[in-house]
Amino acid sequence: MNDAPHPDARRSYLRKRIAALGGVWVVAALFLWQAVALPPASRPTPVSAETFPTIVGVAMVIAATGMLVEALWEYRKAQPPPEPPVAVPDEEVVTSGPHGEEIVHSWPRLAIALGATAAYVTLFFPLGYLLSTVIFLGGMGAYFWRRPVGAVVFAVALTAGVGWLFSLLGIYLPAGLVALPF
């Protein structure tokens, strides 16, 4: 089995790393700016109050700049992803994920998921937490997981567990048509 990461996964990781390091660089620059803006000491001293923060700020900016340049260089060298398969919008497209798993891309599945979520939100108060959540999780699990019995068992267990946890925390969920057992 091939354990090499998918080229697109590497580039995606590097994009996230570049974004995070850009944020670190901004925080380091703001720290340095604030360190330099500290008021001078009231009397002359060899080491003032802003000396140590300025040194730390300069070191942070230098380190963040170095890591950012390295990540940008790695991103530049990374292979571009292969061309995605062309599909008719109504068809399912199965691609391979970064770890070899199958990923199904389908507009009808997305529409069903969004419609089911909208129905869940709409029916949450009239039906109550217990009934609406079991129907939503069971239906979505049976549709996507394609194991109806396992999906319903999972939905009931997760709904009961979350409801029990909320009752322990003193958060009361709407009862709706079925009274909550917890």
TrEMBL record:
Keywords: Membrane, Transmembrane, Transmembrane helix. The keyword Methyltransferase does not apply. Coiled coil: none annotated. The chain crosses the membrane at residues 18-39, 51-73, 118-145, 151-180. It holds the Pfam family TctB. InterPro entries: DUF1468. Residues 23-174 form the DUF1468 domain. This is Tripartite tricarboxylate transporter TctB family protein. It comes from Phytohabitans kaempferiae.
